[in-house]
């Protein structure tokens, strides 16, 4: 039976690869505006390769998504480019394994090299139930490829990379069998936090012989050791002795079929692809799409302690300073986030 299951997983694997392609911020669809899209949906398998950080030569992106500490961030995975259908598994072929999310503070999110950055983990889900064994990737599939995390509330402002990762363990019983599916998103974190969590490097954080990487999952497991460091500011879900609920927590009925390539609130329109067809997504007032682009929609001089360039200076619920340091102006990025640019 074991050999049959392994053989079946090998046959299915070629058609079940996947990539993280989109991002949501506080429930708003930012599509692929700030992701370094992988060139293919094939995995990385060498934990000593620099590709383990942000995938193999991903497509460069000029977009930098604006977020604030405490924001809800949802990464979205699918098997094929621009396919957001919930009718298809996000990652199929019995690609069971954990879901992990890291962040790395960098000088410039658009040019930073992932393998040179220091990473800290902000969320993880390994095997949330052992009765029966149920994996983070199955929860991902239950939710149409969506996994939601929270930006730590105390981290320092600045440019960051966010690394979303699935480790598929269906052939991980032999050395080098684990498959790593990862994408890096480019973020600008606002706020006035000061925390600088301890970090690890990629490559370096994983070893091919780690118990959560070299593992035979075709057995009854009582626990699972998630690779990498302990998450910062949160805890991993404990392994439940009862069946994991398969009901989606993401509203799959509202899943869009197109992929925005212009940030919400930016001027003009863009073509969003859905399968082999396309549709036009019209957006609202002019704003910024990266820290190097100045918007025509600015805010009158504010009050408080001057906020450094690229820091947050306003938005719904903002209670901090609205005054930007000399050389920058408070710019409307969206209703929730104004930035000194």
CATH-derived topology: Coagulation Factor XIII, Chain A, domain 1
What's the order of the H and E elements?
A: HEEEHEEEEEEHEEEEEEEE
Low-confidence stretches: 1-14, 268-296
Oligomer: single chain
Give the total of beta strands. 17
Secondary structural class: mainly beta
> Whole-number average pLDDT?
85
| Gyration radius from CA atoms, angstroms | 20 Å
- CATH architecture annotation name: Distorted Sandwich
Largest sheet: 6 strands, mixed
For the record, the count of structural domains works out to 1
The coarse overall form would be globular
* Beta-strand proportion: 25-35%
Helix percentage: under 10%
> Please, how many helices?
3
CATH class, anyone? Mainly Beta
Topology (SSEs and partners):
Layout: H1 2-13, E1 19-25, E2 28-29, E3 35-36, H2 51-54, E4 65-67, E5 72-78, E6 99-106, E7 119-125, E8 129-130, E9 133-134, H3 136-142, E10 146-150, E11 158-168, E12 179-189, E13 269-274, E14 277-282, E15 312-314, E16 330-334, E17 337-340
Could you name the key traits of this structure?
17 strands, single chain, 341 residues, six-stranded mixed β-sheet, 27% strand, Coagulation Factor XIII, Chain A, domain 1, globular, mainly beta
How would you sum up this structure, described in words?
The structure is a single chain. This protein is mainly beta and 341 residues long. The chain has a single domain, classed as Coagulation Factor XIII, Chain A, domain 1 (Distorted Sandwich), CATH 2.70.50.70. Helix content is 7%, strand content 27%. The protein has three helices and 17 strands. The strands form five sheets. Strands 3, 4, 6, 7, 11 and 12 form a six-stranded mixed beta sheet that branches. Strands 2-1-5-10 form a four-stranded antiparallel beta sheet. Strands 15-17-16 form a three-stranded antiparallel beta sheet, with no helix packed on it. A hairpin with a 2-residue loop joins strand 8 and strand 9. Residues 1-14 and 268-296 have low confidence and may be disordered.
């Amino acid at each position: 039976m074991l050999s049959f299951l392994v053989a079946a997983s090998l046959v299915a694997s070629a058609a079940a690869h996947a990539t993280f392609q989109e991002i949501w911020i506080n429930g708003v669809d930012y599509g692929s505006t700030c992701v370094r899209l992988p060139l293919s949906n094939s995995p990385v398998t060498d934990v000593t390769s620099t590709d383990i950080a942000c995938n193999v030569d991903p497509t460069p992106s000029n977009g930098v998504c604006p977020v604030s500490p405490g924001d809800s961030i949802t990464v979205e995975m699918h098997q094929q480019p621009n396919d957001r259908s919930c009718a298809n598994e996000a990652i199929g072929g019995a690609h069971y394994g954990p879901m992990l999310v890291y962040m790395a503070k960098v000088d410039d999110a658009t040019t930073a090299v992932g393998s040179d950055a220091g990473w800290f983990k902000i969320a993880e889900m390994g095997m949330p139930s052992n009765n029966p064994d149920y994996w983070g990737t199955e929860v991902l599939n239950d939710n149409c490829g969506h996994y939601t995390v929270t930006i730590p509330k105390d981290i320092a402002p600045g440019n960051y990379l966010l690394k979303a990762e699935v480790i598929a363990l269906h052939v991980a019983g032999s050395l080098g069998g684990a498959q790593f599916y990862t994408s890096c998103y480019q973020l600008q974190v606002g706020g006035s936090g000061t925390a600088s969590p301890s970090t690890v490097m990629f490559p370096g954080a994983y070893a091919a012989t780690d118990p959560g990487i070299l593992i035979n999952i075709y057995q009854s497991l009582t626990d699972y050791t998630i690779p990498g460091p302990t998450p910062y500011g949160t805890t991993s879900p404990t392994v439940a002795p009862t069946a994991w609920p398969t009901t989606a927590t993401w509203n799959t009925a509202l899943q869009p079929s197109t992929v925005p390539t212009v940030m919400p609130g930016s001027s003009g329109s863009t073509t969003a692809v859905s399968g082999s067809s396309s549709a036009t997504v019209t957006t609202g007032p002019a704003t910024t799409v990266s820290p190097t682009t100045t918007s025509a929609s600015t805010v009158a001089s504010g009050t408080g302690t001057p906020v450094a360039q690229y820091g947050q200076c306003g938005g719904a619920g903002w209670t901090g300073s609205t005054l930007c340091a000399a050389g920058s102006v408070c710019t409307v990025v969206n209703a929730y986030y104004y930035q000194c640019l």
